[in-house]
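Ticket 4471: requesting a sanity check on a complex prediction with zinc ion. Repro inputs:
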Amino acid sequence: MDSHFSRTPNDDRLVLELRRDLHMHPELAWEEVRTAGRIAELARNAGLEVREGVAKTGVIAVLRGGATPPASGRRTMLIRADMDALPINEATAGRPHASTSPGKMHACGHDGHVAMAVGAACVLARGRANLPGDVVFAFQPAEETDGGAAPMIAAGALVDPKVDAAIGIHLANTIEVGQVAAQPGPVTAATDGFVLTIRGKGGHAARPHLSVDPIAIAAQVIPSLHMLLTREKSPAQPGVLTIGAIHAGTAGNVIADSCEMRGTLRTYDPEVRTYLRRRVEEVTASVAAANRGSAVVEWDGGAYPPTVNDPHVTAIVRQVAAGVVGDANVVVHEASLGGDDMAYFLEAVPGCYFRVGSANTEKGINGPGHSPRFDIDEACLPIGVDLLVGTTVAYLSGV
Ligand SMILES: [Zn+2]
Ligand SMILES: [Zn+2]
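Returned C-alpha cells:
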C-alpha cells in the first residue's frame, strides 16, 4: 500500500470501537438516527464535508483530494455502507459488545460495514494531499427493508461531485476471515416479493362439494410454482422461489373463504425474471380456476434488481485484495440469491460489491447472517479498510 494511505493503530482502534458501539446500539431501518449522528461526527472530525438527513437518515460525506489527477481525467469513487440492523433478539450471551436493545441486532454485519467505511475515510482524509480525485461516502438506511439506496440516489448522492464508480463491502460468514470474494457479473439476485390470494367459497367441512376449498387449492399451487423453477428455466440459470408464509382458516370443521400466501422469487437474468413473474401469475390463476376458485397475485413494490459487478472495477478489487490477503485468498463466491439494494448504485455507475470473510470456524464464529448467533471475527475490519482505500486510490490514479 502507498505509504500515504496506511492505517495507524489509532485508525484501527477507532474502527474497532465504532463497530462495537454500533453493535451495542443497533437501529432498525429508517431509525438509524444515533448511527448517523456518530458517522457524521467522525466524518467531520476527519475533515470531510458532511450532509445529514439525505433520504431521511442517510449521510453523505465528501472528501476532495488535492493531488493532480491522471491524464485520463479526474474521477470520483463512491464508497457505500448500509447502516440498519434487524428485528432479531441477539443470542451471543457473554460477548461484551452484544446488543443492548432487546429485539434489535446487527445480524448482517452492517455495523462492520459502517466502521470500515469510516476507517477508510480517516485514512484517505489524512492522505488527501496525495489523493488524485474525490471520494463520496454514502451511508444508507434501510437495506433490510424497502431500501435507502434508491432514495439517496434520488436525493443527489451521485452528483456534486459526479460519481464515476462505486464500491461496497458485505461481510460474509460463508467465507473465512482472511479471504475476499470478488467476481464480475451478478452477485445478488433480483428479489420479487409477492402475495397470492386464493379465493374459494367458505362452508361446512362435511360438505366440501358445496364449497370451494382455498387451502386445498393452495396445496396444489405450491408444487406447481416449484415446477416452474425445475422445468421452465434453464438449470444453468440461478433462481429460487419460496413460499414463506401461508394464512387461512379459523377452525378444523370450517372450509375457509380465502387463503393468503406470501413468498419471494429470486433470479439473476432479466429475461428469466420477466418470464417467471408472468408464469407465477398464470400458473396460480389456472390452478385456482381448474379447482373452481380464483386467484390474485400482487408483487411487492420494494423489489430490488440484481447487483451486477463491472469487470474493470472488479479486476482492481481483486488485484488490491491479492496484495492485502494474498493471491490464494482471493476467491469466487458461490452464486447467492440474496438481495441487496447496492444494486441501484451499480445500475447507475460501474462498480464492485465484494465480500470480505468474517467467519472464524476454529473460534466458533460462523453463525449465518440474519441468525441470532451471528458475529464476526473483527480481524476482518482492517482488511476491509485496506481494500476500500487501496481500490479507491488505484481507481482515482487512473487504473
Ligand atoms: Zn441482511
Ligand atoms: Zn446485509
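Notes from triage: The chain has two domains: 3-188+307-396, 190-299. Leaving this open until the requester confirms.
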